[in-house]
């Protein structure tokens, strides 16, 4: 509980453990029995079965689950999507961004950036989803000298913006993210639109990259994995990478689950591969020098994203009222205590407040303006954002090191 004295507003922040490699985190994220009952529907579906009745029964559930529109708290994990977005950046065991900045050569820095980009792929729990962030919601966390600030800059469509800086190491990360789901016969493919830039300011290098897609498979084996192609490029050095994320076949079987393959090459000579990339993003990823045949492990998921520590409130009076862990605190408490009536009522209050604020703006003819990001009007072909401030200040919520 923050504040409460000398007229300071009372605010409650509920912080929960980050997701682990297996997509769980103790009892906090175990799917409730109702999810297990829904998943049991899949057991009776065999290849070639008539899915007409099955799809008619499940479509409303799937729509709400993956669009997170008025989703029952039974199907929520106790944290906002904004937090999950931020955790992929600040919840790590080893400081991979420092390795990017400290590497001696452009090629070494590039391979370190490739490894970092793989590290932000995190497991997804099938059957439950985080809260859909409200407009203007923020999440502000520090890990050492690395400060991270996120803001929900649009609600329809849902767009999240991230700005992270480490002033002591001259590192800046700007990332705008807009998920766009597309329904298919056996699942949902979520394209993650938006621009992602990692800047190593000391070296005057900017690394531009996109994100893999999230594929959510319904039948016959339910699951969720990252798939698709990712391109990473640095214009200043002329080095590029192409990565391909793969999962098992559409039936849910096969040996390519969570694999990532690709190559690193010079843009001036795209046919000449410098390194071949191969491995699994939830295990280890190696690179092979095509000239010498030497193989080096560049990423070990167990060393980077296992045994993650839960953030704590370091400065109670510095926590904003828009902070995710404050906005959804009552809902999260209800979920954690399995008090579903409390969770449902608290969630309705959050959603009704957002709708009321929208009606007020519409009645006044006011447009929403983000507090921490400048958003250009040209949104065709993807969203971009620019942080208003050069450096992100230290946050009231910190990750223990």
Describe the 3D structure.
- The chain is α+β, with helices and mostly antiparallel strands and 401 residues long.
- It has nine helices and 20 strands.
- A six-stranded antiparallel barrel has the order 6-7-10-11-9-8.
- The longest helix has 25 residues, at 340-364.
- The protein is globular, with a radius of gyration of 22 Å.
- The two termini are 23 Å apart.
- 36% of the residues are buried.
- Mean pLDDT is 85; it is low at 48-68.
Any descriptors?
single chain; 401 residues; alpha+beta; two-stranded parallel sheet
- Strand order, main sheet: write it out: 6-7-10-11-9-8
Mean pLDDT: 85
- First-residue to last-residue Cα separation: 23 Å
Largest sheet: 6 strands, antiparallel, barrel
Number of strands: 20
The helix count comes to 9
Helix residue percentage: 10-25%
Which stretches are low in confidence, meaning pLDDT under 50 for 5 or more residues running?
Answer: 48-68
Task: Spell out the helices and strands N to C.
Answer: HHEHHHEEEEEEEEEEEEEEEHEHHHEEE
- The structure class reads alpha+beta
Q: What percentage of the residues does DSSP assign to strands (E)?
A: 25-35%
Shape verdict = globular
Radius of gyration: 22 Å
Keywords: Lipid transport, Lipid-binding, Transport
Function: May be involved in the transport of sterols.
Protein name: Oxysterol-binding protein
Family: Belongs to the OSBP family.
